[in-house]
Each structure stands twice: as C-alpha cells, then as structure tokens.
C-alpha cells in the first residue's frame, strides 16, 4: 500500500486530472485554533500534497468550539456540494462537555449519510473521550467512530490526535490544541488515509 499510495498511482493520475476538492470539516483542530496563518491542519495538509505532486485542493471548514450537532446544523452551507471528498473531524467538544454519546452518534451518522447521499467520499477521523469521564462514558463514546465507519463503509482514521495527545511538547499551553509542530505530526500520520481518500475519488472519476 505504501508504495502505491506514496506517490505512484495517486500522483500519476493527479498530474493529468483536475484537483480533487477536499473539505476539512471539523472543529478547532481543523480550524487552526491558536496558530498563525499557514500553520493549521488544512494548510499543512495542502502543502504536503503539493510537495508530493498530488493535485488536490483542501478547504478549511473548521469552526472552533463546534460539536457534532453544530456540524450537522451547518453542513449544508459549510460543505459545498461541488466538493469531491470530506474529512469529518468532529466530536472532541462533545466529549469535553460530556454530551450524551447517543446525541453525538446521531449527529455524526446524519453527517456521514448526508455526504454519501451527495456522492461525496468521506474520511471519518475518530476521537477518544478524556479518561476523567469514566469507563462507561468512554466506552460508549469511543465506539461511535469505528461503529459508524463499519456501518457506512467510509474510510476511517481511528484517532485524529494520534502522536500528539500524550506529548505536551506538541500541544499549546491549554494542553488541548496542537502546536504547529503538532499539526505536522497529525498530517504525517493521517496522510496515507488522505491519499486513499483521493484514490477513491479518482477511481470513481475514471472512465469505464
């Protein structure tokens, strides 16, 4: 997978095709909270794709403080129907606020199903509940993402903050949001899945 996705198949097709339009639909983690221009997730992901010669356009549709329900409510105007693919990164604020996991699950399910109805490819980025909320809450919340990915068949990245959540040196003073370097780690880790997402779009666009 690494060899094919690492620039061969995706890169070759992308050179001769229109850029794949990807919307990063999320909360402060995609909005770039506390970071200078160009240091946020969407900008760094765009830069990496550009470096690898992959024709893609990343649109930042992150809103700081947003919950899964908030995302559901703004979906129609935040994610253009012209987009080819969407990275869904929502739920961190739900967990921080102790929102009932059933509410979060329902909102995320509605978002993913709606995007699929539009014909847009989806990469679902998972989140974990803080341990201080207890085992029962954590088990209910953490199961939302793998369950939803299995039910809908979308691409799944288990934990958006992988490699950053437990490293204070990669987080801002609030202990929650990644620094510029932290975002670089996030992009490094999620990039293979983003390439798979782009490949899914290209395969659908390819002539029969």
Compact description:
By secondary structure, this protein is of the alpha/beta class.
Task: Based on the model shown, name its key terms.
9 helices; 5-stranded parallel sheet; globular; alpha/beta
Written overview of the protein:
It is a single chain. By secondary structure, the chain is of the alpha/beta class. It contains 9 helices and 5 strands; from the N terminus they run αβααβαβααβααβα. It has helices at residues 2-15, 28-31, 41-51, 68-78, 92-97, 101-118, 135-142, 144-152, 180-205, and strands at residues 20-26, 56-62, 85-89, 121-125, 155-157. It has a 5-stranded parallel sheet with strand order 2-1-3-4-5, with helices on both faces. It starts with a helix and ends with a helix. Mean pLDDT is 92; it is low at 1-15.
Mean pLDDT over the residues = 92
Sheet with most strands: 5 strands, parallel
Give the SSE string.
HEHHEHEHHEHHEH
* Tertiary shape: globular
Counted beta strands: 5
End-to-end separation? 23 Å
Cα-atom radius of gyration: 16 Å
Give the proportion of residues in helices: 40-55%
Strand order of the largest sheet: 2-1-3-4-5
Number of helices: 9
Our estimate of the beta-strand percent is: 5-15%
**Structural class computed from helices and strand pairing:** alpha/beta
Low-confidence spans: 1-15
């Amino acid at each position: 997978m690494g060899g094919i996705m690492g620039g061969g198949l995706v890169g070759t097709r992308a050179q001769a095709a229109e850029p794949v339009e990807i919307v990063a639909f999320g909360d402060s983690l995609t909005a770039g909270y506390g970071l200078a221009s160009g240091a946020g997730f969407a900008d760094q992901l765009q830069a990496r794709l550009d470096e690898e010669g992959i024709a893609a356009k990343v649109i930042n549709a992150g809103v700081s403080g947003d919950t899964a329900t908030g995302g559901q409510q703004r979906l129609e105007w935040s994610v253009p129907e012209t987009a080819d693919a969407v990275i869904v990164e929502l739920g961190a604020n739900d967990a921080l606020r102790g929102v009932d996991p059933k509410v979060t699950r329902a909102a995320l399910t509605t978002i993913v199903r709606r995007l699929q109805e539009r014909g847009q490819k989806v990469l679902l980025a998972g989140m974990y509940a803080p341990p201080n909320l207890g085992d029962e809450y954590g088990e209910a919340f953490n199961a939302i993402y793998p369950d939803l990915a299995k039910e809908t068949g979308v691409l799944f990245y288990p934990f958006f903050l992988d490699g950053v959540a437990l490293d204070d040196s990669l987080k801002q003073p609030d202990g929650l949001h990644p620094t510029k370097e932290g975002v670089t780690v996030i992009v490094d880790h999620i990039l293979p899945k983003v390439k798979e997402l782009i490949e899914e779009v290209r395969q659908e666009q390819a002539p029969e």
